[in-house]
Structure formats: structure tokens, C-alpha cells
Amino acid sequence: MGKQELSVVIANPSGNKIIFVLTPVPESQYAVISDKLLNINCFNAEQVCFIKNIDFHHNIQGSMNMSGLEFCGNASRSFALFIAKQQGLTGLNNIKISVSGIREPLDVLVNTSLNRAEVSMPHPKKIKYLKDQKLSYLNSAGLVEFDGILHIILNDIPASEKIFNEIKTYVMKTRNPSVFGVMFYNTKLKHMVPVVYVRDIDTTYFEGSCASGTTALCISLSQKYTDGTYMYRVSQPAGELIASVEKNKNKIKRLTVDGKVALSEVQSVII
Question: Superkingdom of the source (predicted)?
């Protein structure tokens, strides 16, 4: 593949920097292009997202694919805010988007004045606490699984690449999700360090923030409650996210993640 010029926008949703590629790109080139873009030091990005052409008859305002065809809550928030700004919308607006990794369109409430976006997150398939594990630090750890995403919640264990890799080896052998993360959560400081692996592009990042990981943490924290709405403000290495869990008769009815998003101007890059 020769040199090509791409139009991109750099999003910074609470420190989890994402490169949005606006130029149409075939899926077969996602991995190669992502690798090149992530190696551009001035972007200092953790993820790449590709904007797709849409059929407006489908009642959505935009469609995007992550480079590994996974789901990403922070990218969803950023994309919706970008759409609203491109359309010249002001104040509060609901933006409906199609996102890789989930079947149904997502609703994102954006505030163009405050540069914030709140995404309605997909519901988990499985929630449980681990026990009788070979890796001792997994005993009493929380496990939250979404479609294609599996997160482990570790309380009061310092973030460590060694621990992450040991858990990753175990999880990929037994479950093999397209996205796997360990959320290292300090219960005293209410601070989380997300470490996330994306299988199809073979990348691991200590992320600035993680929306699905924040959701998983808050689901785990709210397990002791059966009814009501519970909001959690979670600081992370490069920003803060606010997650909300609404429950009725011990069933999750609604999940949201909210936070600030900064967007660059559209720019050209040759790779």
C-alpha cells in the first residue's frame, strides 16, 4: 500500500485520545492504517476509529467502526459530539449513531456548549464475582461481560503490566473476547487505572480513561443495591468519567457514561 492522505480529527474524551479517520477506508486496511496512525507521536493516541458512509433511511446520524471492530464508549461519545458540531447544533441534542461491536443504534446526549457527551451504554451479558481461581488476586474480583468485551475489576491492587499479562493469558485461553480489560480500582481514592487489550489489532494500552471499564466498575459497585439510580464519579489517569446505573427489582434498566470531550479541527495526514 502506497502513501495516502487521510482527513482526521483527534478526540480527547477524558484523556483517552482517539483518531477519527474521516476518509473512507476499506475494513481490510484498518489494522495497517491504525498501526501507522498510532505511531505518530504528536497525536499520542490510544485508539483509531473509522467513519462510515451512512444510509439516512436507517434513522441514524452517523456510523463508525473501531479499528478492531470492537465497541468503545468514549469513541461513541466523541463521534456524537463531532456530528452535532458539524451540523451546527447548539445546546442539548440527542444523536443516534451506529457503532461497531453492538447491534442496536446508540443514543448519545450531547451538550455542544459545554463539550460534554453522555452515552447510553449496552447492558452486560454476565456479572459475577470470581472465586477459587488459580491466580490468587482474582479471588473476589468482579467480572463484567458485554458483547465482545470482558472486564475484570481488581480492588486495591496497584496497576501492573505483569499482573495484567497473567490475567490476559488466562482469560484469552478460556474466553477469548475481542476486548479484554483489567480495571485496577483504588477504593480509598476512588481512582481507576484501565488497562485494555484489543485482540484483532493486538494492542494493549494503559488508557487515560475507559468508558466501558467505568461502566463495568459501577455495575460491580452497585451490585449490593436492588432499586434506584446510583451515580459514580471515577477519576482516571487522564480525566474523569461519571457513570450512572438505574436498577429496578435488581435488574439493570439503564446505564450511562458522561464526561468532557475535546475535538481538534479537521486536519490532513499522509501515511
Answer: Bacteria
Is 3.40.50.620 the CATH classification of the domain at 126-260? no
Write the pLDDT tens digit of every residue in 176-221: 999 999 999 999 999 999 999 999 999 999 999 999 999 999 999 9
E strand map for 31-90: 47-52, 62-66
CA-CA distance, 100 to 50, in Å (whole number)?
10
Pairing status of strand 116-120 against strand 106-111: antiparallel
Say yes or no to pLDDT of 105 above 70: yes
- C-alpha to C-alpha distances, 37 to 45, 70, 269, 271, nearest whole angstrom: 8, 18, 9, 8
Question: Which residue, among 49, 44, 42, has the nearest Cα to 73 in the 3D structure?
Answer: 49
R_g (Cα) of the chain, nearest Å: 18
Query: What average pLDDT does this structure show over 17-38?
Result: 96
Q: Give the closest residue to 215 by CA, choosing from 199, 197, 236.
A: 236
CB 215 within 8 A of CB 222: no
User: How is the chain split into domains, by residue range?
Assistant: 5-117+261-270, 126-260
Q: Do residues 271 and 7 make contact, with C-beta atoms less than 8 angstroms apart?
A: no
Q: Which CATH code is given to the segment(s) 5-117+261-270?
A: 3.10.310.10
pLDDT tops 80 at residue 170: yes
Longest CA pairwise span in the chain (Å): 57
Q: pLDDT tier at 148 (50, 70, 90 boundaries)? A: confident
Contact 188, 170 (CB under 8 A): no
